[in-house]
UniProtKB/TrEMBL annotation:
Pfam families: LPG_synthase_TM. The chain crosses the membrane at residues 7-33, 39-65, 128-146, 158-176, 183-204, 216-238, 247-271, 277-298. This is HpnL family protein. Coiled coil: none annotated.
Length: 331
């Protein structure tokens, strides 16, 4: 990446960190702190450490579909996944910005561009496939629980719509990968010399990944475990609040929330979507609306505790790269 491009990305993220205050304000900073007080620092530490372990699983899934990378680079993929999630959760860039930051984290450390983008595409595909399976299981349980409840008529369209949206996204990502790369290369050829070759290199790397089904299956399993573990984080929060809600009930609740968040990817941080879903569905499983809202706010607090330091560290690394690039370009 050229020095001016690094500076542009650096400035964009700094602006994003400033605008992130809007996101926090939209949720309610005081409410977030009140929610943290309900479980204390011990509970918050446990929830944060659990989330870091989930990020390690996600990083392992990404690394699994990055053939040719030495085992010593495994921690780098965990770090890249952390910055990717941090940008998605904290900055008002939504999913796209997170992908850019995650890719930049790897390329800055010397991972080749074709490997970065091909592995990211494969990782996203297996992650969404795992989420679809996870969601289908959650909706099946939800159908059983709501079989005799009047609220079924208002909840099930939401659940089925979320599943349909997820299935559509996966279908597009799975079947349009190569055509989209080819179109991007052809369009870019008019603006960026060498873009066709770059896209061809990504397609070649992607084909190499899919010729190794064991890697793809490993990534799928790791992503599925990450979805389950992430859902269990809400159960940990509820335990610290004194609620003994069954783990299966919390996982079912989280499955639908994750799906609606993914479908609402265009909303920065899914502000409002997550909170509304918790308040609507939580009582079905014995979680009062106020407690369900507190869990949602705790997850926002956890995102800040992990995401903000990660982005600050990433920014410092980018600033250093810009400084080094500037010094080497001086006569």
């Amino acid at each position: 990446m050229k020095g001016y491009a690094r500076i542009g990305l650096l400035l964009a993220t700094i602006i994003g960190l400033a605008i992130a205050g809007w996101t926090i304000g939209a949720v309610g900073a005081l409410q977030v702190f009140d929610a943290m007080a309900t479980i204390g620092w011990t509970g918050m530490l446990a929830l944060t450490l659990w989330s870091i372990a989930v990020l390690a699983l996600l990083g392992a899934a990404w690394f699994a579909v990055a053939p040719g990378e030495a085992p010593a680079r495994f921690p780098l993929f965990i770090w890249a996944r952390t910055t990717r999630e941090a940008a998605t959760d904290v900055l008002p860039f939504s999913q796209i910005g997170g992908l850019v930051v995650g890719a930049r984290t790897l390329t800055a450390k010397g991972v080749s561009t074709p490997v970065v983008y091909a592995s990211m595409i494969a990782d996203m595909t297996t992650e969404l496939a795992a989420q679809l399976l996870f969601t289908l299981a959650g909706v099946a349980v939800l159908l059983f629980v709501l079989s005799d409840l009047p609220i079924r008529s208002s909840i099930m369209p939401l659940a089925i719509g979320g599943v349909a949206g997820m299935a559509a996204i996966i279908a597009v990502l799975a079947f349009a990968q190569r055509p989209m790369l080819r179109i991007a290369g052809n369009l870019g050829a008019h603006l960026l010399p060498g873009s066709i070759a770059a896209m061809a290199a990504v397609r070649t790397q992607l084909d190499a990944i899919y010729r190794q089904p064991r890697r793809v299956i490993t990534a799928f399993v790791l992503n599925l475990l990450a979805w389950i573990a992430s859902a269990a984080g809400a159960w940990i929060a509820l335990r610290f609040m004194g609620l003994t809600t069954p783990l299966w009930a919390v996982i079912t609740l989280e499955a639908l929330i994750f799906t609606l968040r993914s479908v609402a990817f265009f909303i920065p941080g899914a502000v409002g979507v997550q909170e509304a879903t918790y308040a609507l569905i939580g009582p079905i499983f014995g979680v009062p609306p106020t407690t369900a809202l507190a869990v949602s706010l705790l997850k926002r607090a956890r995102d800040l505790l992990i995401g903000v330091p990660a982005l600050v560290i990433w920014q410092a690394m980018e600033y250093r790269a810009v400084a080094i690039a500037g010094s080497t370009e001086e006569p």
